[in-house]
Design a protein that fits this description.
There is one protein chain. About 85% of the residues lie in helices and about 0% in strands. With about 100 residues, it is an all-alpha fold. It has one domain. α1 packs antiparallel against α2 and α2 packs antiparallel against α3. The protein is elongated.
Length: about 100
Amino acid sequence: MLTKDEFVADMKARIDAWNAEIDVLQAKAHEIKEDAKVKYEEHLVALRATRAEGEKRLEEMQAATESNWEQLKAETERAWDAFKDSFNTFKSHYK
């Protein structure tokens, strides 16, 4: 079981990894044909919004008290799983 500080550090590392992956995808956008570019950009916007939600949750985790951090942890894990699924679907679609 991770402590609050360990979990926060793990989430920070995940967000940093998201940022790097999104940057790679953004660079790849230049290679996409015009007709697919709009959809690609829409997906990037959605990924950025999800990343922003992850950053917000990280801030909430950092400010959490011992009494509510377990609940926030569970919510954050669900959000992470949803982002990961969305991100992997996006990546596989545009390979």
